[in-house]
Amino acid sequence: MKNYKKHKSLFILYFLILTLPYCTFSQETKQKRLEIEKVDLEKEIVKINSLLFTNVSKKKSLLTQVEDLSLKINVRKKLVLVYNDQVNELSKTIIQNEKKLNDLQNELNILKRDYSKMIIKSYKSKSEQSRLMFLFSSKSFLQAYQRFQYMKQYAKFRKQQSQQIISKTEILKSIKKELLQQKEKKLEIIELNRKIQLNFEYEMKEQKRLLLKLKKEERFFKKQIFSKQKKAEIISQQIQELIKEAIAESNRRSGIKKSTVFNLTPEAKLISENFALNKGKLPWPVIKGVVVQGFGQQPHPIVRTTLIKSNGITLATPNKTIARSIFEGFVMSVLSFKGSNPTVLIQHGNYISSYSNLSEVYVKKGDKVNAKESLGKIFTNPETGRTTLKFSIFKANMPINPKVWIYKL
Questions:
Q1: Domain boundaries defined on the chain
Q2: pLDDT the model gives residue 25
Q3: Could you read off the pLDDT of 313-344 as tens digits, one per residue?
Q4: What is the pLDDT of residues 206-224, one digit of tens each?
Q5: Which of the residues 167, 193, 196, 376 has the least number of beta carbons within 10 Å of its own beta carbon?
Q6: What is the mean pLDDT of residues 122-150?
Q7: CB pairs under 8 A, 24+ apart, for 38-45?
Q8: Confidence of residue 271 (pLDDT cuts 50, 70, 90)
């Protein structure tokens, strides 16, 4: 019965050691993912601060102040959640490692006790009768051979027991060290999270104060948002109409009727295929920027009752930033709309990228451009101090979400 219990406990220990990498793999993967998310969000906050909150001397409109602060609060909120997840994951890992440590210590104690008994028994046996006498007292050659084999196996088993004790002692040290590091990391994250939450609470109070002021002028701001939205929709429709006409023209030249895509030359077809192959890997249209408005229909970040629709994204970027092409292609058009800054359209086969709100344009219709080639300087609003690029991607004349196409957008 004793042997059965000993073998059972050894089996459990071996199982734990063998399955340890598999048990911790998913947790380690999640911890790595959370660490990447944390670093990305921290970088995002730094970008938001540098792009939207450094020029304090510039008087922003109340609406712009609230929009900028809301953007930072949303990122800060995500960061707090990631920190909380990190603490929870570390807590789970610490509990598991403490259990493993306890189980391993118990198993090591059993091994040491058994090994101690074996040494004492071996010593007593050696004092009573020498190994040679044990062999020479054999009644036959076969018995002597069997006794010799037994002695060899016994010595081998002793050596294995000794090696097991050394090996498990090293594993024990490793787990203790890892456990200590995990506890220190957990305390570090808790402290960082406390500081982040203090900033978060301060920003929430500031947002509440600004929203109370905004509430008094809500009607005015609703009209302002509606007017801005209507203007954006008109420009968007005109861009889509222009693309539609360009598609029709390319098909007319080739004698094709009713087609929703461009009739492409072999070169343009290759560009189109390569563009599609680079989905999710395309460069940003600016060297440095932060997304201040996303793609699609969404409630306004401040006046929640007002819906806004965007066929692209809006990027805030440093003053005097240059817009650049996200892929090779041809300048399809340089547009100037009444009351708006110029827009450049670049055709990449059946895909078009659009760059709006430029103060200067460096290209003209028909020019061939390469990836990351300069297209023009982005306009800086003198009232708000904001430098923003409206960026869109179309497949034929249908807008598609840039987030899916641009790397880490």
A1: 2-216, 219-405
A2: 57
A3: 999 999 999 999 999 999 999 998 877 899 99
A4: 888 888 877 777 777 777 7
A5: 167
A6: 58
A7: 38/79, 38/82, 38/83, 38/86, 40/408, 41/75, 41/78, 41/79, 41/82, 42/79, 44/75, 44/290, 45/72, 45/75, 45/76, 45/79
A8: very high
State the Cα–Cα distance between residues 343 and 320, nearest whole angstrom: 17
Q: Among 22-31, 77-86, 108-117, 214-223, which range has the highest average pLDDT?
A: 77-86
Classify residue 192 as exposed, middle or buried by CB count within 10 Å of its CB (0-12, 13-18, 19+): middle
Cβ–Cβ under 8 Å, residues 290 and 51: yes
Q: Is the pLDDT score of 142 beyond 50?
A: yes
Q: How many CA atoms lie within 13 A of 283 on its CB side?
A: 15
- pTM of the entire predicted model: 0.72
CATH fold of 219-405 reads Glucose Permease (Domain IIA) (2.70.70)
